[in-house]
Amino acid sequence: MSQLQHAKLSSFRKIVASGVTTALFSAVLCAGTPTYKEKYSGGSLNELKPGDSIGLTIEGDKIQLSQGKGAVLTIPAAAVTEVNYGQDVHRRVGTAIGLAAVSFGAGAFMLLSKSKKHFIGLTWDDAGKKGGLAIQADKNDYRGLLTALEGVTGKKAVNSDTMNVKN
Question: How far apart are CA 13 and CA 19, in angstroms?
Fold first, then answer.
């Protein structure tokens, strides 16, 4: 390789590296704080009904719940007393029966499949204002959401499926 070709290749590599670095830096700056789109399952928030879509934003030292464009609640991360999660697994019997009326083979196959719902719970005590909530997290979001909650609160998430409950 001649010295001229080597210089051109070196310049090209520098330009590409500079462009990639600029693109990554711009993406980080423009990305902002992610908002997780989840469903409220229940808790102490009178403003929301079970099944309502909510946004959950974790930034800095606070956790913000929003519905539409307005904030419903802001919880200081230091006020969170517990983070837990669990799963609800059930077979799709109703769907399988309906599908079996059309195609027995497809209905039998559907009967073997399972559906999972992921739930995340938070409890807090903010200067005497106690509360709690449960949200149904999207299957693609729940691990990242749990990690973000653990990181901002400093609390380890407890798997409620492994807890022994006395009746």
Answer: 10
In a domain, 167, yes or no: no
Summarize pLDDT for 10-32 with one digit per residue, the tens. Answer: 665 656 455 544 444 444 444 56
CATH of the domain at 111: 2.30.29.30
Residue 150 CA to residue 157 CA, distance in Å, equals 7
Q: Which amino acid is at 30?
A: C
From CA 38, how far away is CA 41, in angstroms rounded? 9
DSSP state for residue 155 in the 8-state scheme = P
C-alpha dihedral (149, 152, 153, 154), degrees to nearest 10: 100
Pair 82, 155 in one domain = yes
Residue bearing tokens 């423009």: 30
Range of the domain at 28: 1-32
Angle at 63 between CA 79 and CA 155, to 5 degrees: 50
Structure tokens at 62: 């606070």
Please state the pTM of the whole predicted model: 0.64
- Is 65 found in the same domain as 20? no
What are the tokens at 98?
Answer: 């309906």
Q: State the angle between helix axes of 93-102 and 104-112 in degrees (0 to 180), rounded to the nearest 10.
A: 170
